[in-house]
Amino acid sequence: MFTVKNHVRGWVVATLSLALGALSVQADGLGKSFKEDFNTLDESHWYISDGWRNGEYQNCLWNRDRVKIANGKLHLQYAPASNGKLDYECAEISTRQRYGYGLYEARIQTDTGSGLNAAFFTYIGPSQGARWDEIDVEILTKDTGMVEFNTYVNGQPKNGTKVPISPSTDQAYHVYSILWTPHKIRWYINGTLVHQTRGNNLPVEPQKIFASHWGTETLVEWMGQFNDLRHPAIMKIDWIAYTRLSDRCQFEESVMCKLRGGD
Question: Are 174 and 107 in contact (CB under 8 A)?
Fold first, then answer.
């Protein structure tokens, strides 16, 4: 389904050296490389959203009780509310630390459901005292045979596209990877390059890492007509990882190992 780009390795040798020289653009004190396997959920590392929502467009409240660990995987549930202000509850985690240029990865499987969004992304914004920069992997589960990639640069959507995926996201786990350097962003699925953007119109602010599962009844054109649910829809995450550009590959499934030949 996807075409492997033969020039990837050559690009990395040339580009990573340039990227490492540009890291001084971002402040010191950023998060270090890690791989989270979700045998537990360390709340000193992860913040769990609870008791609020992003805006009126969202038809659910974040609820920490919808964030669960089961069999070594993180489950983010979208489900009917047991009580509360809204009819539905949803789930989100984010890192407490900010991260800069590097490789962001997650292994994810979704359920199906029109009007729902299962997202893995980086974000920072005015509430953290920064401009709105964001890099997205979004699975709108109205169509689990498609994945969307996007960025926000100072609050403006840029560089978006849709990519087909097989098997569908509800039938198998897939590894989603974002390689962010000062002059380029590349998105991969299962180690294969599927989308890229380059130039000056890119995010620059260090960002937090998010995983979220939420729904809407108003963003119909984008996310589909919402269908009432009687049982939870679950976004399952096997692991999340971040690798700084200056670091070696951390584990076999990482795109960094393929790009650097494991060195």
Answer: yes
CA angle 111, 114, 117 (to 5 degrees): 65
**pLDDT band for position 189 (cuts 50, 70, 90):** very high
Position 228: which residue type?
A: D
Q: Between the CA of residue 167 and those of 63, 114, 173, 201, 249, what are the distances in Å? A: 30, 18, 9, 33, 27
Q: What mean pLDDT is predicted for residues 174-192?
A: 97
Q: For the residues 190-215, what does the mean pLDDT come to?
A: 96
Q: How far apart are CA 71 and CA 129, in angstroms?
A: 37
Measured distance CA(126)–CA(120) in Å, rounded: 20
Domain 8-259, CATH: 2.60.120.200
Cα(134)–Cα(193) distance, integer angstroms: 20
Instruction: Note whether 223 and 116 are within 8 A (CB).
Output: yes
| Ranges 6-10, 146-150, 244-248, most confident | 146-150
Q: Of all residues in the chain, what percent carry a pLDDT higher than 90?
A: 83
Residues contacting residue 198 through CB under 8 Å, at least 6 positions apart: 183, 184, 185
Distance between CA atoms of 17 and 164, rounded to whole angstroms?
A: 32
Closest C-alpha among 195, 191, 146 to residue 168: 146
The tokens for 111 are 């359920």
The answer to whether residue 245 scores a pLDDT higher than 70 is yes
The continuous run of DSSP H or E covering 127 comes out as none
Residues taking part in catalysis: 134, 138
